[in-house]
Predict the structure.
Amino acid sequence: HFASWLTLAPHNAITGGKVIHSKTQPSTNRAAQAFRMAAQSAGRSDSALGAFYRRMRAKHGGPKAITATAHKIARIFYHMLKYKQEFQDPGSAFYEQRYRERVIKNLKRKAKALGLELVPLQPSVS
């Protein structure tokens, strides 16, 4: 509930199984502001969090990307405090590689469902 207390998690209003709205609530929580500032500066870094921020910004826009990255940083922070572990940043290259593998896996699954086969292009030797 840490991210919810920070108002970085969506406030889901669900009735009868139908989602009425799912937005983060407005707040003047200073800790949430600090996480948002950290998320904004992480977006300019060459780290896994920076790569996550840039992908979210391209997909959803700046403000939502800041909130999503701040939520992720808050979860990491809570995990570090709870388990007394240091944060090990794998770097943006590792994050991008994992993202690429996930996209390829999903494309293969969708192609198989349509009765198709996904074949990678071989680089031409010139």
Summary: Residues 26-113 form one domain.
